[in-house]
Predict the structure.
Amino acid sequence: MKRGLMLVVMLFVVNNALAKMVNALPKDKPSVLVFSLTKGFHHSSIADGIVALFKLGQENNFKVDTTTNVLSFNTQNLKQYKVIIFLNPTGTSVFNDDQKAAFKFFINEGGGFVGIHAATDFSYEWDWYGKLIGGYFESHPKIQEAKLNIVMPKHTLVKGLPSPWLHNDEWYNFKNLNTDVKVLIQADETSYKGGKMKNNHPVSWYHIYDGGKVFYTALGHTNECYSDPVFLKHLLAGIKWAIK
């Protein structure tokens, strides 16, 4: 009996030690999919953006996959990702109905979405996507510096950003804005030339849409953006928020 009891105790100790070892192992990294197909204007900064996103992933414990292939948008493939990132894709009627359904299912199941700059110059024909991304590109003036004002300074997505924030970029004017989005940052149209939104000019926002977490920033046109620590801080905050 004593021998049997000792064996039980030993097995308990070993199993407990094994459980602690398993719990101490690094957890699987969340994965994000970066999509950057261009059927319209091609941003030369996409290459720098991909490099920056890989670096952010390595430094912040998430895995980055990239694609320009619409066939990646199927339910089986997308289920391995926590977040889809649209890095300056362009074009209309890019996805077929099955691919749209897979993307929508991903969002409905709680997937995260991050849109960068030209993600609003994409899928104009798809009303669901227009509401997801929060609006569509209409026009832009020349690249120039503008003053940005942080609208929600206490929010984690903009925490630690300067306000005002002086930034050089291509400033999109928008149409068909989804009024349900929560605006994080606005451009001061008096600080640059070419703003057409009556100085009510959002450039970064977030919302919960159809089951998923959505973050968009209109910044990210230039190559220099992807080595700008302030912009990358803001972008990383959006990715982390969408992953969680």
In short: Residues 4-15, 17-26 have pLDDT under 50 and may be disordered. The longest helix spans residues 2-24. The longest strand covers residues 201-209.
